[in-house]
Amino acid sequence: MNLSQEEWIAQLAADKNAVILDVRTEDEFNDGYIENAVNIDIHKGQGFIYEIEELDKNKNYYVYCRSGARSAKACQIMNELGIENAYNLLGGILDWEGETVQS
Predict the structure, then answer these.
(1) How far apart are CA 75 and CA 31, in angstroms?
(2) Where are the beta strands (DSSP E) in 18-68?
(3) Which of 12, 36, 86, 92 is positioned for an S-S bond with 61, CB 3.0–4.6 A?
């Protein structure tokens, strides 16, 4: 499900069962990420699938990438793997107006 930045932030703030998921590369992640985000690179192919399958299917996942395209694909894959609540941040971190953290 695609959410605007405002919807994503509001829903995330109210969600006690939330996990923020960054599906960019490790290098992109290290350049700056949304606080508390977990990084699983969608470009890992089958490795990405394995890591997603290990996630708690009862959690709600707030997914983002650079522009919103990879995270939309990631949400689709997550849905296919049985994670019902995956929310894509439209516009990705490029449009993100909130804080970011450097690692």
Answers:
(1) 23
(2) 18-22, 38-39, 60-64
(3) 86
Report field, pTM of the whole predicted structure over 0.85:
yes
Which of 21, 65, 74, 75 is the catalytic position? 65
Say whether pLDDT at 6 is over 80: yes
Convert the pLDDT of each residue in 49-72 to its tens digit: 999 999 999 999 999 999 999 999
Asked about 65 being catalytic, the answer comes back as yes
Using DSSP bridges, classify how beta strands 86-89 and 38-39 pair: parallel, antiparallel or unpaired. Answer: unpaired
d(CA 33, CA 100): 5
Extract the tokens encoding 35: 């606080």
